[in-house]
Design brief:
heterodimer, A: 686 residues, alpha/beta, Ubiquitin-like (UB roll), Rossmann fold, Dimethylsulfoxide Reductase, domain 2, seven-stranded mixed β-sheet, five-stranded mixed β-sheet, 26 strands, 17% strand, B: 166 residues, alpha+beta, Glutaredoxin, 2 domains, four-stranded mixed β-sheet, elongated, NAD (chain A), quinone binding (chain A), 4Fe-4S (chain A), metal ion binding (chain A)
Chain lengths: 686, 166
């Protein structure tokens, strides 16, 4: 490995490392605009220049590979002069509009100008004017400010995989633009806002609303899909202003999908901020006591066998456990945390993404079953694309034809193909056998079908016969779409012995066998089928569930509570309270705890710590935070022949999948722009 | 008689196909299209992108980077007039005024009869013999307004004469 000296300090790095990266190893920071560690090297901003012994001119350190015996200096007058010169050129056409620029305060160009800028300009001519571009409802452009680092172009081309951005012209006439004036059709487009080192690309919904130094930053976890991306919630007063990604190499690297980033405007819209009780057919505002009394009276008049609870997609583990304990105490076994009817239970290995998201980097063959990862988990899809770009990776799909941003072989959407692969009769089975680390991803599009258990069994057979399950590798992966699902399965928010599942509860309510249904944020069930049942809805948004409810208990959204979620990999992560719930709304577990006292089955925990200890006792997986755990593998799935209905993706409109994103104005705009106006507006849909 | 063939997608596809298997094929392919049609029609972009497995944005970027890859058909004769420093110091400014006045067109425009297109360039590498002009690829030095008229007149005659195919 080459050894070189930087500023008099020796460092040994791998061959092929750039000088800039080698300097970073030593903790020497070199200013840069165009270089980004997750993008290809462009070498066009010229800010990272350093002096290399025996080189006649300063060299761009981001694009210069290290060589043995190289002597590099990063802090000489020559370097400072070169950087000052580069910066002066960049500033020639950069407008002086920092006071009205949204990037102000977190702008690389501002920071470097403080370090290398002159206090006045020598350029007396007019600055150039560039027409702003239309990048869609999420990204605001002010192209006068662009310094042509091309980070956005590289991101959209390399990571997002939709080559729509490019540069036209050259020199002063260079412009970054979409090929044909149209909105960026990527679910990851928001990331170019973070990447832009200046204020050329800023967030449209966040425009002119806050300054970065006014914001309180809270590190948390995203729950709008099942990836569990690390996020930073920026809030001012009691309002979430924006959401940014945080670094987590194992999950989201440093990307965040558009829904997770931009749906936060819904956190102040359509909120349930006080309890409601239905009287004379109309929901009326009530106090907590009135709401609890109404529920308690009903419960006392109803036997445990006739009450049921369903947990929704955004429910946290603490509140689900509290509700489970309460219903068990009330004598009910009708519990289900799988409102979409997914056929998962059984050993932990059967319902999580066993290889881990980072495991995709090690795979060499991938089979997608009934899933469109681009819509269901855009960040995870970007990870697959990253692996595909490295080469030696082939992808096949049994399921819907989808535009996945990487080349893949669609084998068809007939479930019979799976049976053929499992039996080894399909050519793809040979490919699996030849692979070193084969992997499959089975999606909710397959598992929520009535024959989901059979498909699960087929997937298990493919995994076992295809060499996916070994001591050092498990390539059997379930891709969830709901943040709550794995948590519900872990803690057993499932029908007890003789209990009804979601379908059974709905059928029972329809027939009149179930008299009371408790919805913990469950909005994606057919409310019409609840029949004459008394419905308690605990949640944060006025969506379908609240509309049907007889009593509404206002809960907290994920930015307003300290709560535990388990992502699709089985990674236990915690959200943190960034702002307080609005009005009378409360953290969800405390609502269940308070209700338990009123109905006379006081739960045994008084604090969140006690509840969490209890959670670890119920399911040991909750004791390990943020890390993946070894899981058990066993028999699961059913035998049989699947129905011949084609496999489809469960998500039709990526921008609206839950009660939060349905209430978001930004997501409604995205729907109109990218999905078309197929979405029907209704009273509950903002 | 036009010097260039009229745009034909079929012909363009045939030209591009010759470059399909060469590495770094975009520039040579663009040059070949330029020789054939005198310009790069926007219709050629998807053909190039598909044949060379590039994104349309990439192709568009390269075309707009080089000024010679014009996107509209030029006149029968392409007149390039140098406006760089050396020529300026030898009086190219008055030559520019003369040229635009004589042809009654502005930069980048084509005369009404479709005969001449006037384009500015920045250095033809003929600084020792400034001011320099290039007509249909032929370089002329020390061009005075009178000489300019004579060069254009002889170029105009060559179109009137029967076309000779090489």
């Amino acid at each position: 490995m080459p050894k070189l000296t930087i500023d008099g300090r020796e460092v040994e790095v791998e061959a092929g490392t750039s000088i800039l990266q080698a300097a970073e190893v030593l903790g020497i920071e070199i200013p840069r605009f165009c270089y980004h560690e997750r993008l290809a090297i462009a070498g066009n901003c010229r800010m990272c220049m350093v002096e290399v012994a025996n080189s006649p001119k300063p060299v761009a350190s981001c694009a210069m590979p290290v060589a043995d015996g190289m002597v590099v200096r990063t802090n000489t007058p020559v370097v400072a002069k070169a950087r000052k010169g580069a910066l002066e050129f960049l500033l020639i056409n950069h407008p002086l509009d920092c006071p009205i620029c949204d990037q102000g305060g977190e702008c690389d160009l501002q920071d470097e100008t403080m370090a290398y800028g002159y206090d006045r300009g020598r350029f007396a001519e007019n600055k150039r004017a560039v027409q702003d571009k239309n990048f869609g409802p999420l990204v605001k452009t002010t192209m006068n400010r662009c310094i042509h680092c091309t980070r956005c172009i590289r991101f959209i081309t390399e990571v997002a995989g939709v080559p729509e951005l490019g540069a036209t012209g050259r020199g002063e006439n260079m412009e970054v633009t979409t090929y044909v004036e149209k909105a960026l059709s990527s679910e990851l487009s928001g990331n170019i806002i973070d990447l832009c080192p200046v204020g050329a690309l800023t967030s449209k919904p966040y425009a002119y609303t806050a300054r970065s130094w006014e914001l309180k930053k809270t590190e948390s976890i995203d729950v709008l899909d099942a990836v569990g991306a690390a996020i930073r919630i920026d809030s001012r007063g009691n309002q979430v202003m924006r959401i940014l990604p945080r670094l987590n190499d194992d999950v989201n690297e440093e990307w965040l999908s558009d829904k997770s980033r931009f749906a936060c405007d819904a956190l102040v819209r359509q909120r349930l901020d006080r309890p409601y009780v239905r009287r004379d057919g109309k929901l009326r505002e009530a106090t907590w006591n009135e709401a609890f009394t109404a529920i308690s009276e009903r419960l006392k008049a109803t036997s445990g066998a006739r009450i049921a609870a369903i947990a929704g997609d955004l429910a946290d583990a603490e509140s689900m456990l509290a509700l489970k304990e309460l219903f068990t105490a009330l004598g009910s076994v009708h519990l289900d945390g799988r409102q979409d009817g997914v056929k998962l239970a059984g050993p932990r290995g059967s319902y999580i993404f066993n290889s881990g998201i980072a495991g995709i980097d090690r795979a060499d063959v991938l089979l997608l079953i009934g899933t469109d990862p681009r819509k269901e988990a855009p960040v995870l899809n970007a990870r697959i694309r990253k692996r595909w770009l490295k080469g030696g990776f082939s992808v096949a799909a049994v399921g819907p034809k989808a535009d996945l941003t990487y080349r893949h072989d669609n084998l068809g959407d007939d479930p019979a193909i799976l049976a053929a692969i499992a039996k080894g009769e399909h050519p793809f089975a040979d490919k699996l056998k030849a692979a070193k680390n084969p992997m499959l991803i089975i999606g909710q599009g397959a598992l929520t079908r009535t024959d989901g258990a059979i498909l699960l069994g087929l997937a298990r057979k493919i995994a076992e016969t295809g060499g996916m399950v070994r001591d050092d590798w498990n390539g059997f992966n379930v891709l969830h779409t709901a943040a709550a699902r794995v948590g519900a399965l872990d803690l057993g928010f499932l029908p007890g012995i003789g209990g009804r599942d979601v379908e059974g509860i709905l059928a029972g309510a329809e027939k009149g066998d179930i008299d009371l249904v408790y919805l913990l944020g469950a909005d994606e069930i057919d409310m019409a089928r609840l029949g004459r049942a008394f419905v308690v809805y605990q949640g944060h948004h006025g969506d379908a569930g609240a509309h049907r409810a007889d009593v509404i208990l206002p809960g907290a959204a994920y930015t307003e509570k300290n709560a535990t979620y388990v992502n699709t990999e089985g990674r236990v992560q915690r959200t943190r309270l960034a702002v307080f719930p609005p009005g009378d709304a409360k953290e969800d577990w405390t609502i269940v705890r308070a209700l338990s006292e009123v109905v006379g089955h006081k739960l045994s925990f008084d604090t969140l710590e006690q509840l969490r200890l209890h959670l670890s006792a119920v399911s040991p997986s909750f004791a390990t935070l943020d890390r993946l755990q070894t899981v058990d593998w066993g028999a699961f799935g059913a035998e049989g022949t699947p129905a011949s209905d084609p496999l489809v993706s469960p998500i039709e409109n990526y921008y609206m999948t839950d009660s939060i994103s349905r209430a978001s104005k930004t997501m409604a705009e995205c729907t109109a722009t990218f999905v078309g106006c197929a979405h029907q507006r209704s009273g509950t849909h903002g | 008689m036009p010097r260039f063939a009229a745009w034909s997608a079929e012909r363009a596809r045939a030209i591009i196909d010759d470059y399909r298997d060469t590495s770094g094929a975009l520039l040579p392919a663009l040059h070949a299209l330029l020789v054939e049609f005198g310009h790069i029609a926007p219709e050629a972009i998807p053909l190039l992108a598909e044949a060379l497995t590039l994104s349309r944005a990439d192709v568009q970027g390269v075309i707009t980077f080089y000024h010679d890859f014009r996107t509209t058909p030029p006149g029968r004769h392409l007149v390039k007039l140098c406006r760089a420093e050396a020529c300026q110091s030898m009086g190219s400014a008055s030559l520019e005024d003369h040229a635009r006045h004589h042809l009654a067109i502005g930069w980048g425009e084509t005369t009404e009869d479709g005969e001449f297109t006037l384009e500015p360039v920045f250095c033809l590498g003929n600084c020792a013999l400034s001011p320099a002009v290039m007509v249909d690829g032929e370089l002329y030095g020390r061009v005075s307004p009178e000489r300019f008229d004579a060069i254009l007149a002889s170029a105009g005659q060559s179109t009137a004469a029967p076309e000779q195919t090489p």
